[in-house]
């Protein structure tokens, strides 16, 4: 980044315009603190990704580079909102939003304006039509140049070549324009004379498909008669033939393996060649962090990891787990940042299932610690195989050999529990460590877990420190029965999984109970939503909806004789619901509350 004062920046912009160099002017229009940029800060984004000026720190600059190149490719201005990863604030309408995991809590809104050189039109000739082309082109904000040397090379960004010389140097200039790939080439001539000129162009070795690109006679058929009208028809044809700007222009990007950001892969980025492949970073800080931690390096470059949020979400979807963008983003960051993630939510919303689905996507072991009151570190970490130790002692006695503690406390006598198994997992992809219902554990276990996650290592007194070769993806779940300590929360990414709406619940039920009829999934989802509106000791969640749909299907309420829309099912559905309330409600008081509300009302079609 080059720090440039405002007058100098504007002077540099004038220099780029004079040299017909395209760029994007990025202006900070709004700031949410903390942020290093201020409203009015500006920068220029060049086509190679170079940024001149200041719109924030390294991470904001990296996002501005990617989005600036996108705007430059599409030619359309736009507003960009860079917000911290995981932010829940909805994007303003009409604003492109990028979640930036590097930001320290602030947000930036920028106006990105592409500044493109005027279309360069070359005109050969001095006839009235040629002179009219020069006049009208200037009025249309085109840059029109008269060709004085037909043998001179054409500028590489030439948009159009119009030959209006009435016989002079026509084949030469047309041939040069076609070979240079000029988008619009036209010849002002009658059809008969144009055919002869184009035949000569073809005789010079120009392929027939290129010769066919020449517009001859030039211009749209608008009944033009005067030189000015003919020139106008030519510009109309030029505009008509111009390709439309892309709404989503493709910009080559890669994912920074440390922070998870999308970064441009052009020459202005921060690349690193590692193990024969190029890895791209948002800045030197992430590159240095990548190099400083070999275990992290192995994890981030492990084959098979999802390359972006969309890839992870598609993978979760393939396992049958329906994740929204926010949850998929949180899980992706946990994988890419090597940071534990805390999933909170009421029971039954899919927290545990998210970890299981993630392990399936990564094709890696799921190692689960089920927390409970009084759980100890040793219970979740390791224990010694006493029967095997006793067998070793008996064998030594039979051979009249002496055993020391070092002979009995070896890796062969160790039984690894989930925490140690996660640390010792060899890779190449990280294991998924699920610490389920961490809110049920005591403070001592929470403190131990914090230390283990921070160091990715554990010390066994008899064997020394065991350090992870590939640190696990740690997923902690909590039903929020108590508050966790701030230290653990600060260590983790955080995501709250709310109970989904009825449409989403219905889709989840269809995936988890595919044999059930579609109408049954919808009825169950709607009924669960209405039941949740009652005063209950324990409101049903997604898990109960799945269990209930399965129970109703097994009881035959969606049998073949029932209509595909559920018509005719009401008597059977009402009776089966009465018998299966235990699948969705877990307290007798709740069962009575549902009955008092009226089963028929709760089961009504949406």
Average per-residue pLDDT, rounded, comes to: 87
The name CATH uses for the topology of the largest domain is Rossmann fold
The share of residues in extended strands comes to: 15-25%
Number of helices: 24
- The N- to C-terminal Cα distance equals 57 Å
**Major sheet description:** 6 strands, mixed
Name the overall outline.
Answer: elongated
* Class by alpha and beta content: alpha/beta
Q: According to CATH, what is the class of the largest domain?
A: Alpha Beta
Biggest sheet strand order reads 3-2-1-6-4-5
Strands, total number? 23
Work out the radius of gyration.
34 Å
Taken together, the total number of domains comes to 4
Instruction: Kindly state the percentage of residues in helix.
Output: 40-55%
Overall CATH architecture of the largest domain: 3-Layer(aba) Sandwich
Contiguous runs where pLDDT drops below 50 for at least 5 residues: none
CATH superfamily of the largest domain: P-loop containing nucleotide triphosphate hydrolases
Organism: Pseudonocardia halophobica
GO molecular function, one term: ATP binding
Domain TRASH: 256-294
Pfam family, one: AAA_5
Short structural summary:
The protein has about 600 residues and is of the alpha/beta class. It has a six-stranded mixed β-sheet, sandwiched between helices. It has a five-stranded parallel β-sheet with strand order 16-19-22-15-23, with helices on both faces.
